[in-house]
Amino acid sequence: METPQDISMKTEEVLRVELEVFKREHRDLDEAISALQDRGMGDQLTLQRLKKKKLFLKDKIALIEDRLTPDIIA
Fold first, then answer.
1. How far apart are CA 34 and CA 48, in angstroms?
2. Helix or strand or coil: residue 33?
3. Is 74 helix (H, G, I), strand (E, B) or coil?
4. Cα–Cα distance between 70 and 31 in angstroms, integer?
5. Are 45 and 35 in contact (CB under 8 A)?
6. pTM for this predicted structure
7. Would you report the helix, strand and coil content of the chain in percent, each value rounded to 5?
8. pLDDT tens across the length of the chain (74 residues)
């Protein structure tokens, strides 16, 4: 797992690429979870693990977006 210090050492370009990869993974997980639930094929443990991974990715996405978005002092 990455720490905030790991992110601060990466270039903006690297962060943007990682952001797109994480967003794609998040979207894919969302589709997989929906498909498993719609078909009734996923057991609860599998669904729980997929949802946990999806939340982890959401947190990483938010962290990177915060890093890339400049602070605006009002």
1. 12
2. helix
3. coil
4. 32
5. no
6. 0.81
7. 80, 0, 20
8. 566 557 778 899 999 999 999 999 999 999 999 999 999 887 899 999 999 999 999 999 999 999 998 877 76
